[in-house]
Amino acid sequence: MKVLSTKKLTLAQRELLLNGGLGFVEYDGLKIEPIAVPDLQIEDHIIITSKNAFRSIKDSHHWDTLKEKNWWVVGERTTAELQKNDLKINAVGLNSVDLAQKIIEKSPETRFTYFTGNMRREELPELLSEHSVDFKEYIVYNTVMTPKKFNTVFDGILFFSPSGVDSYVMENTIENEVCFCIGNTTATEAKKYTNNIVKANKASVENVIVQAVKYFKKR
């Protein structure tokens, strides 16, 4: 069995696949380009939904100010990045919708600064706006699609974001491959092209790999 990973994997992640009896091909279907963060008014409460946003603002001249703020974040991996930097985390959402609901329930009168990328999804800002939550949004990185054509037939494809799905289908079609998706939003995007989908139990690269190994061991 052979799978395609739509992002380059770490050595430990590659070993998970190989130890599970799966061959693999990997490539980066997306490229992240940080954007210089301009001078701006930063509120006491910060929203971020990805590690890419965090890494961009951490490298900015605002970092000393940001370290003192309250953080509202999506996902375990992004949360881990914040914890490494001893930041105050007010709430963690499983996804953008979950975080928006936590904000609406806990702090609807609070003003927020929202750092995100150019291809962010609409759910979080739409929900906050619908409930009159005051926030200002700043784009701090660009996601650039880097599609690649594959002639190999794969048994499965590992997807880690909706944009990764979009990048793949720019040059390829999804036919009989099983699509292993990191979360609900990625699975929703993949469902535009196939119903052959397996979702990870946790939003991590490792769990996507585990699901692929478990699936093909049963075959």
- What's the domain count? 2
CATH class term of the largest domain:
Alpha Beta
Low-pLDDT regions: none
CA radius of gyration: 18 Å
| Alpha-beta classification | alpha/beta
N-to-C series of helices and strands: EHEEEHHEHEHEHEEHEHEH
The total strand number stands at 11
Sheet with most strands:
6 strands, mixed
How much helicity do the residues have?
A: 25-40%
Write the CATH architecture name of the largest domain. Answer: 3-Layer(aba) Sandwich
Shape, principal axes of CA atoms:
elongated
Spatial strand order of the main sheet: 3-8-7-4-5-6
Q: Average pLDDT, to the nearest integer?
A: 94
Reported by name, the CATH topology of the largest domain is Rossmann fold
**Share of residues in strands:** 25-35%
**Total DSSP helices:** 9
Q: What separation lies between the terminal Cα atoms?
A: 10 Å
Q: Would you kindly provide a written description of the structure presented here, covering whatever features stand out?
A:
By secondary structure, the chain is of the alpha/beta class. The chain has 2 domains: 2-29 and 147-217, Rossmann fold, CATH 3.40.50.10090; 32-143, Rossmann fold (3-Layer(aba) Sandwich). 35% of the residues lie in helices and 26% in strands. It has helices spanning 11-19, 51-58, 63-66, 76-84, 96-106, 123-130, 162-169, 184-190, 205-217; strands at 2-5, 23-26, 30-34, 45-48, 70-74, 88-93, 111-117, 134-145, 156-159, 178-181, 197-199. The strands form 2 sheets. It has a 6-stranded mixed sheet. Strands 2-1-9-10-11 form a 5-stranded parallel sheet, with helices on both faces. α5 runs parallel beside α6 and α7 packs parallel to α8. The chain starts with a strand and ends with a helix.
